[in-house]
């Protein structure tokens, strides 16, 4: 039993079987990569884990509790945070405010009416958010509008916002897509650091094999909505089925 | 004292000065002079300025912060007015209970309408609010006649069963609204040379309530709740996946802005104790949208400016007629005078809507941030030369 257990999950879009019988178990405090060609159903699988989609069949258990039928914010409050394929941040807000919101969510839950208090007078929130910005190496950008930052910085901020909630499971959907080499390497370092410093489980979808092989402890290969194999990085590299379905085209 | 940052304190002081000295500021021209018709410093109009200011400040908490555009806020204004008039009829001519009831009832009404309408966002939300408001208007106009007195409108009569007070005054008239004995209509006139300044009790009550309402909106803007509302506008997906539920936040904003509208409606009835269904019509809902956008949606002071601007136009431009125009342009040769008057004619009197419409379009196209953006541009332009050095320092730009 892992912290996340996906059993027989299927999802159909009209005539397209996007996911068919996916079984997957992510062990606590591990880094688990999900790879596969375009359209394999990786993002769809992630959407089924966070409440954006409801699978047609199967079950998804997080830490012994089903996530199915819960709304995204409830699933997040259970301890699952997600980084999107294109960064989802609060573009109209400052970087500091972006970081304060997850800290509020962590402290106050899904809703709290604090309409009169001064936001900056909440010392504990401000301090935690500031510390997180320092950790993310973005302290000097705190007053910037989040929308005006580079894509790499937006991604960094989004990861930081997810971490600020101290999730138990962090889901990343192609965190380095469209990034320059230097940014990609920074992201790898950042994720390694997170993994070393925290009790956190990471599930990562990635196309970049360099990223996958530097981080992952287990890899699941998904093709046409079904897992082909699940194994350690060493074994995946040499696996004939994987070469045929995936690495063959990429190499 | 007010627990505000320096910038907000300045803003608060500006609004306070504008409100308290309005009888002077709005009466710059001596009585009887040719320009006197541009004076707006009479009680009735000043009351309208601040009451619609309150309405727009509240509307801005919903629209400016969350981006949800309600097209039905006049319904809450109307409900507020009806509630207040009923309080005058049944309980007392004191305005305090009337105003309290308007706020409570419109809040409940907003909770109901908001709960249903907020199931959708964007244009569908706007349409739902519009539908609800039109429904309320039609109900008030016909089905609910026992409560609203239909077409005639709800008014005080000589046989109202006023529990705390009299049905009719000693001389057989209908009692007037008051604040613990201070009549709302009582006005003190100050005559300084050729000027007459009017200080009206009702206006000052509304003005002080506007200051309180503005202060509350300032606090909301700077609060964690206000930040969450801005986050709703910015990215609901991220909010959801950050473990926050946008629904109760938007509903709370909707109810608060509905209560502001109810407060405005209650004050309207307190100044002049009658309520009619036309107060709930969609044009009235549209007007507050215009005020907010014209002044600057999402800014603090914008809605107050927008409300003042539109009410000024409505009342001053609509009064200019052809004979006034002729007197202005009488120095021109006859033929040219007639031509000029002919050209200006469509924009004045009943045509003030045309002028306002054109101004509104110009503002939206050239100043998307409304009058506040215009003010900021002028400020930047004036201080452009000397402030260059400061510009390098990183600074935050809080909403005006
Ligand atoms: N909401 C949707 N409605 C209909 N079809 C969808 C939807 N979402 C995904 N699909 C389809 O399901 C299949 C799997 O898509 P998915 O986005 O999960 O692939 P992916 O593995 O994430 O691919 P990529 O590597 O390109 O991100 C694709 O064929 C896609 O077109
Ligand atoms: Mg994808």
What characteristic shape of chain B results from the CA principal axes? globular
> Helicity range of the residues of chain A?
25-40%
Write the element-wise H/E pattern of chain A from the N-terminal end onward. Answer: EEEHEEHEHHHEHEHEEHH
Strand order of the largest sheet of chain A: 6-7-8-3-9-10
Strand content of chain A: 15-25%
Helix content of chain B: 55-70%
Domain tally of chain B = 1
What integer is the average pLDDT of chain B?
90
Largest sheet of chain B: 2 strands, antiparallel
CATH-defined topology of chain B: ABC transporter involved in vitamin B12 uptake, BtuC
Compose a concise summary of this entry.
The complex is a heterodimer of chains A (251) and B (400). By secondary structure, chain A is of the alpha/beta class.
Structure description:
The complex is a heterodimer of chains A (251) and B (400). Chain A is globular. Chain A has nine helices and ten strands. In chain A, helix 3 packs parallel to helix 5 (151-164) and helix 4 (123-135) packs across helix 5 (151-164). In chain A, the strands form two sheets. In chain A, strands 6-7-8-3-9-10 form a six-stranded mixed sheet, with helices on both faces. A four-stranded antiparallel sheet of chain A has the order 2-1-4-5, covered by helices on one side. Chain A has 251 residues and is α/β, with parallel strands linked by helices. Chain A has helices spanning 42-50, 72-78, 95-108, 123-135, 151-164, 181-197, 209-215, 233-238, 240-250, and strands spanning 4-13, 16-26, 31-35, 57-62, 65-66, 80-83, 169-173, 201-205, 218-223, 226-231. The model of chain B is unreliable at 388-398 (pLDDT under 50). Chain B has helices at residues 6-20, 22-25, 43-66, 74-90, 95-117, 122-141, 145-148, 201-222, 224-234, 236-240, 246-271, 282-295, 302-316, 322-328, 334-344, 352-366, 370-382, 388-391, and strands at 154-155, 178-179, 182-183, 187-192, 195-200, 274-275. In chain B, strands 1-6 form a two-stranded antiparallel ribbon. Chain B has a two-stranded antiparallel ribbon with strand order 2-3. Chains A and B meet through helix 2 and helix 3 of A and helix 8, helix 9, helix 10 and helix 11 of B. Residues 13, 16, 18, 36, 38-44 of chain A line the site of adenosine-5'-triphosphate (ATP).
């Amino acid at each position: 039993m892992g912290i996340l257990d996906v059993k027989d999950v299927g999802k159909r879009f009209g005539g397209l079987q996007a996911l068919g019988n996916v079984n997957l178990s992510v062990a606590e405090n591990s880094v688990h990569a999900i790879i596969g060609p375009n359209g394999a159903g990786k993002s769809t699988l992630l959407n089924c884990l966070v409440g954006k989609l409801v699978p047609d069949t199967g079950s998804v258990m997080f830490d012994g509790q089903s996530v199915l039928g819960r709304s995204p914010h409830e699933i997040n409050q259970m301890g699952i945070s997600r980084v999107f394929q294109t960064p989802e941040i609060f573009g109209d807000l400052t970087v500091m405010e972006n970081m304060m919101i997850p800290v509020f969510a962590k402290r106050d839950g899904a809703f709290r009416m604090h309409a009169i208090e001064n936001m900056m007078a909440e010392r504990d929130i401000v301090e935690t958010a500031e510390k997180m910005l320092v950790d993310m190496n973005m302290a000097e950008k705190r007053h910037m509008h989040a929308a005006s930052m580079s894509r790499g910085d937006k991604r960094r901020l989004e990861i930081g916002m997810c971490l600020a909630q101290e999730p138990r499971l962090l889901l990343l959907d192609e965190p380095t897509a469209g990034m320059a080499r230097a940014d990609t390497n920074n992201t790898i370092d950042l994720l390694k650091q997170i993994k070393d410093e925290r009790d956190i489980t990471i599930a990562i979808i990635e196309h970049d094999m360099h990223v996958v092989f530097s981080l992952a402890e287990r890899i699941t290969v998904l093709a046409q909505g079904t897992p082909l194999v699940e194994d350690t990085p060493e074994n995946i590299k040499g696996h004939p089925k994987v070469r045929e379905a995936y690495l063959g085209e990429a190499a | 004292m007010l627990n505000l940052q320096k910038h907000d304190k300045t803003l608060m002081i500006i609004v306070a000065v504008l409100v308290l000295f309005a009888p002077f500021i709005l009466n710059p021209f001596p009585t009887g002079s040719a320009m006197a018709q541009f004076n707006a410093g009479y009680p009735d109009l000043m009351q309208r300025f601040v009451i619609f200011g309150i309405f727009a400040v509240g509307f801005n908490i919903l629209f400016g912060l969350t981006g949800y555009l309600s097209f039905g806020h006049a319904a809450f204004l109307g409900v507020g007015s009806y509630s207040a008039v009923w309080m005058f009829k049944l309980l007392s001519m004191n305005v305090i209970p009337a105003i309290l009831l308007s706020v409570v009832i419109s809040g409940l009404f907003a909770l109901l309408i908001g709960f249903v309408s907020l199931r959708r966002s964007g244009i569908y939300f706007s349409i739902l609010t519009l539908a609800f408001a039109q429904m309320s208007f039609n109900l008030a106009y016909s089905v609910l006649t026992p409560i609203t007195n239909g077409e005639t409108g709800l008014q005080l009569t000589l046989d109202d069963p006023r529990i705390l007070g009299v049905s009719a005054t000693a001389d057989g008239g209908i009692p007037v609204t008051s604040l613990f004995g201070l009549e709302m209509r009582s006005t003190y006139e100050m005559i300084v040379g050729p000027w007459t300044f009017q200080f009206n009790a009702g206006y000052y009550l509304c003005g002080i309530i506007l200051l309180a309402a503005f202060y509350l909106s300032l606090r909301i803007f700077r609060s964690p709740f206000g930040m969450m509302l801005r986050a709703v506008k910015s990215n609901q997906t991220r909010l959801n996946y950050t473990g926050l539920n946008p629904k109760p936040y938007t509903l709370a904003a909707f109810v608060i802005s509905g209560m502001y509208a109810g407060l405005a409606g209650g004050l309207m009835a307190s100044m002049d104790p009658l309520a009619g269904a036309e107060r709930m019509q969609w044009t009235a809902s549209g007007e507050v949208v215009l005020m907010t956008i014209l002044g600057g949606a999402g800014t603090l002071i914008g809605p107050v400016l927008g409300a003042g601007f539109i009410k000024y136009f409505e009342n001053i431009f609509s009064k200019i007629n052809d004979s006034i125009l002729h007197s202005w342009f009488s120095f021109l040769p006859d033929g040219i005078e007639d031509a000029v008057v002919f050209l200006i004619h469509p924009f004045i009197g009943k045509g003030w809507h045309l002028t306002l419409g054109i101004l509104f379009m110009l503002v939206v196209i050239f100043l998307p941030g409304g009058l506040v953006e215009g003010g900021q541009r002028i400020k930047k332009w004036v201080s452009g030369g000397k402030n260059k050095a400061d510009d390098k320092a990183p600074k935050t730009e809080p909403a005006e």
